[in-house]
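Appendix B: complex inputs.
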Amino acid sequence: MAGRVITVTSGKGGVGKTTFSANVSAALAELGKKAVAVDTDVGLRNLDIVMGLENRIVFDLIDVVEGRCRLQKAIIRDKRIATLHMLPAAQTRDKSAVSPDAMEKICAELRSQFDFTIIDSPAGIEGGFQNAIAGADEVVIVTTPHVSAIRDADRVIGLLEAAEKHQIHLVINRLQAEMVRRGDMLDIPDIMDILAVELLGTIPEDESIVVTSNRGELATLHATSPAGQEYKNIARRLLGEEVPMSPLEEDTGFFKWLARLFKGQ
Amino acid sequence: MGLLDKLVKHLSPGGYGQQSKNAAKERLKLALTYDRGGLAQGTIEQLRDEIIQVIAKHLTINEDEIEINFDRTTEEDRLIASIPLRMAPRARMKRGQRIEAS
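Resulting structure:
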């Protein structure tokens, strides 16, 4: 089997890389693909807690790199979706414990066993980022409609092109329809114009992301989560399906508006 | 913020004055042009001073109205300089007449 290795990166921290990695891996698995989400944020691991798998870690990525266990042993199998897996990062080491060469070897092994290997990159453009992209066939850049995130995304696109990674997809996260309507938030065409890479999907600001990650659940498994549905659409697009981009939807109901007004939002 | 303020803000486009996304877009485009070229943003000021020096050797220019901008499109980056000249006195003007800079 020759699977696809897709690295999820952004430059800026806190834009939603880990949430994206967890949910798109789950959505791909739900669609019947064998998927593994890999945490490469050594020293600051989080994919495990977002996916609700933090209690099941015995071995990690560094144990594999340093030969203490076989890859198979470090990979955790999810109990909710049979084809979903996770490879955790080490928490007590730092980024220098891995090298781009070591990552390339691990990616090659994962590529032969999984349809999709989703690599969650750490923030930044230093060693951890270089490790995360070393074995990637494709890269997903997650950004938000904020000037800081877009500037960092542009920098990362430049670095990816220099590293000969030309298959770049863009995901715009945390869009707020109401602010876009007012002209107080950069819109999808504005961001596309600035970054000029192919758009894979957009994700609305959604409280259910906080709620599901609080519980270690996956938003993509909740039919009522707008963001969760978008992760599913993104998974379908990765599989080559033509899924039209969802329009930005606003809560237009009068009572919802009134409730927001009183809540001070 | 009072409830009335919120109401006004909610009903008026661009609650904080002008639509701020335009500012975001302009500022980002400029910053990215410098980032991509590996230039410091102070370079434009230096460039401006040096252009003035070179042109002033040959022509009288109106320094206050010089505009130097980067323009970015998906195809190319362009440096656009607009340098208004201060016109020499015309022959029909009487000798000794003072010309004010516009």
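The first helix of chain B runs from residue 3 to 11.
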